[in-house]
Amino acid sequence: MTDTLDKAPAAVPPEQIKAIPVRHYGRWVAGVLVIAVLALIGVAFSNAKINYSIIPDYLFDKGIMSGAWTTLYISVLAMVLGVALGIVLAVMRLSSNPVTSTVAWFYIWFFRGTPVLVQLLLWYNISLVFPILNLGFYKNEMNQVMTPVLTALLGLGLNEAAYMSEIVRAGIQSVDEGQTEASHALGMTHGQTLRRVILPQAMRVIVPPTGNEYINMLKTSSLAYAVQLPELIKKATDISSTSLAVVEMYFVACIWYLFLTTIFSIVQYYVERRYARGSTRNLPATPLQKVRTNLAKMNMLSLSSWRR
Fold this sequence. Notes:
Blueprint: H1 2-6, H2 25-46, H3 55-59, H4 62-94, H5 98-113, H6 116-124, E1 132-134, E2 139-141, H7 142-145, H8 148-173, H9 177-185, H10 190-220, H11 232-243, H12 246-275, H13 287-307
Antiparallel strand pairs: 1-2
Helix pairs in contact: 4-5, 4-8, 4-10, 4-11, 5-8, 6-8, 8-10, 9-10, 10-12, 11-12
């Protein structure tokens, strides 16, 4: 019995598994097609009758610079108006008062349902409805009051308020109702609860879409060209009418819009990180943090090599 056990064959080890990667031929085909399409577009633009050499000459033209500044400040003012009025509308929409909630709903329905260009033109021609502006302490013709700057501010800001109200309402509703009940139990009024408890917690939900709305506002402000506001597109068009470089001026305007939106996209990125610090998910390192980490690693390697 022992002899047969001693002569039992040894266990054969299993063969090592060879992992064969799956070949994704579709990815290669898609990549080749995308590169081919990009190459065709590049060839088309290179053969187009566009004088690319004059674009740098007009990039910092005084007219273009003033138009970019007008675009920047009118979009900032309109966004401030939209955020302030949007908060009021969101509170009205969430109110238990049927009158205020209905008015807020109608406002949002109207301004979200009509084009921004139509709203700008309506404000620009508001003198047909109200020829004279009489506030008691101030009286003047509406044509004198409704300047292109004021028209753009009202048209863009009031339209933005309709979208911001929905963003703020979603942020307020994302906060647990227990927070409100606890605040009221501590003796806080509804306004104090909203300012000190609800809105600070809702900012994490409100900030990301608000940043997107402002970047969209920068581009939407180009519609103010229709009401004679001297913004970036208006200035580029005026220059193209004398230089006959129409498409070239549009490229100049595109470069400035890309520059402005990129700057505010970076700002939005860091603001979002600040308000997301209380989140449980791990935040990825910022580009600046990655640079600092790589520099620290390089310093450690240099120190270790010097000690050797």
